[in-house]
Amino acid sequence: MLRVSDLRIKTKNKEIVKGISFTVKDGEIVGIVGESGSGKTLTALSVADLLPEGVSAQGSIELDNDKNMLEMSETELRSIKGDKIGMIFQEPMTSLNPTMRIGRQVIEPLVIHKKTDKKLMKYMAVSMLEAVGLEDAEEICNKYPHELSGGMRQRVMIAMAMINEPSLLIADEPTTALDVVVQKQIIDLIKKINEDNNTSVIFITHNLKLVRQFCDKVLVMKDGMIVEQGTPERIFNEPKEQYTRELINAIPVRTRRKVQKQEKLENEKVVAVNE
Ligand SMILES: Nc1ncnc2c1ncn2[C@@H]1O[C@H](COP(=O)(O)OP(=O)(O)OP(=O)(O)O)[C@@H](O)[C@H]1O
Ligand SMILES: [Mg+2]
Question: Which of 38, 203, 211, when mutated, tests ligand 1's pocket best, judged by the most ligand atoms within 8 Å of its CB?
């Protein structure tokens, strides 16, 4: 559903992403890992057409076999952005509008992309907030971002990103700022969205354990290049690149063993079901 070819991202005097290519299939969860500054966020932002001022992209980004997004007009892009692509960020506080009530914000993408009846939109805001696991959704609609906890704000962001039922959800370290329990809830929510709607997901994280449990494919980035890509099992069990080995070795041994054990149990379950 997404094909990125030879993507280059430049600032005025520096090439930051140096010709990367990858695909995301329908319903696939693709993880991007790699050291800080390797270009993960800029890659995600260029797919969502949200690159900051002074940063430009070259190459090609095709969504649903449509034409290259990097060559589209503003009008063409507007119909894709927010409609086909939803994006959630690490710190919802910076992406939510502090002066706008939650209900209004959640339906904002609808206001921009479709003209829908006001009552219906209110109804959609409430049901979307319920769908992301927020209780008392009606009440939450009337609150401001600062009145919610970090985990609740992240759920609001996900509701906002999902309200147009995008076919691709991009999550840039969506759980880094949250405690472990809430992290797990948010991951489960993204997984559920992926399964229920067959939404493809690009998932950027520093948490390799998460990648292994959650992603169908992993891209390992270093210095603006993809140094390795493949299934998490392959990457973890037979990393081809020294850099990937270093990343894996940075995970505590006990965590590695635990994940391996879990994988073994899951494989056995699959065998049992097949038998
Ligand atoms: N607006 C900008 N203007 C100029 N350079 C930028 C801008 N945003 C990012 N960069 C530079 O581009 C490089 C890649 O940044 P990016 O945010 O994509 O890294 P990242 O892989 O997401 O890192 P992290 O894991 O820390 O989030 C960095 O060296 C950064 O300094
Ligand atoms: Mg980043």
Answer: 38
Ligand nearest to the CA of 42: 1
Cβ atoms within 10 Å of 153's Cβ, excluding its own: 21
Residue 169 and residue 86 in contact, taking contact as beta carbons nearer than 8 Å: yes
Check pocket membership of 40 for ligand 1, CB cut-off 6 A: yes
CB 252 near ligand 1, within 6 Å: no
Question: Under 8 Å CB-to-CB from 24, ≥6 apart: which residues?
Answer: 1, 2, 30, 168, 200, 202
Would the CB of 52 count as within 6 Å of ligand 1?
yes
Pairing of strands 2-10, 56-63: antiparallel
Nearest CA to ligand 1 atom 19: 37
Rounded to an integer, what distance in angstroms lies between the CA atom of residue 134 and that of residue 191? 17
- Cβ atoms of 28 and 216 closer than 8 Å: yes
Please choose, from the candidates 156, 176, 202, 162, the residue with its C-alpha nearest in 3D space to the C-alpha of residue 40. Answer: 202
What percentage of residues in the chain have a pLDDT greater than 70? 90
Q: What is the mean pLDDT of residues 220-228?
A: 96
From the number of C-beta atoms within 10 Å of its C-beta (0-12, 13-18, 19+), residue 137 rates as: buried
The structure tokens listed for 149 are 């906890």
Going by C-beta distance under 8 Å and a sequence separation of 6 or more, which residues neighbour residue 118? none
Q: Flag whether pLDDT at 124 surpasses 70.
A: yes
